[in-house]
Automatic annotation (TrEMBL):
Transmembrane segments: 25-42, 54-72, 92-111, 118-139, 151-170
Organism: Bacillus coahuilensis p1.1.43
Keywords: Membrane, Transmembrane, Transmembrane helix
Protein name stated in the entry: Uncharacterized protein
Length: 187
């Protein structure tokens, strides 16, 4: 049993933080907050159907995974997240839960309140930039190398534009499939 435990610890060691400090605490807090908020919107204040929720979450999971891979890994290596220059457990939470769910929350409000597209893109860009600023300045979640908050703002602007485009096209596709009876209207 001891050999198995030693093997397991050795296996997960690269995923563990160097030390548990403010950035891990913030990661846990923001994960619980964002996932709880997303859950409430899906269950109580439902605006998107299940197919659209899954679509938005998967689109943003793909977007953040590819984006982080290209921007935070060599040859570019513009920034590090949390304590290491490669993935650790906190990265997994942020990349797989927090980022996609945050964009789902923004899309939820866009649809629910029929916000003007330009206003939504600018507002979403400001919200995402502000969240990054807080995470950098108070919790050391990112270590910029050849990156800065201005570049993040431009990136988030692109994120918001692509999310509006994706949601609009995907929503149209889902409605068309519902009319043809291929997707249940109750989803």
């Amino acid at each position: 049993m001891s050999e198995f435990f030693d093997w397991f610890v050795h296996l997960i060691e690269p995923l563990l933080p160097k030390k548990f400090d403010r950035n891990e605490g913030f990661t846990i807090f923001i994960t619980i907050l964002i996932c709880g908020w997303g859950y409430i919107l899906m269950k109580i204040r439902r605006t998107l159907n299940r197919v659209e929720v899954v679509g938005v979450l998967l689109f943003n999971l793909l977007y953040t995974t590819v984006g982080d891979y290209f921007l935070a890994m060599p040859p570019y290596d513009y920034y590090d997240t949390v304590d290491r220059n490669s993935g650790e457990f906190s990265d997994i939470l942020l990349q797989n839960l927090v980022y996609p769910t945050t964009l789902f929350i923004l899309i939820h409000y866009y649809v629910r309140y029929t916000i003007n597209k330009v206003g939504f893109i600018i507002g979403g860009t400001l919200i995402l930039t502000m969240l990054e600023w807080v995470s950098v300045h108070y919790f050391n979640l990112f270590t910029y190398k050849q990156w800065n908050l201005g570049l993040s703002s431009l990136f988030y602007f692109g994120v918001m534009v692509l999310n509006i485009l994706f949601y609009t096209l995907f929503h149209r596709y889902v409605r068309k499939q519902q009319k043809r009876g291929r997707i249940s209207s109750s989803t």
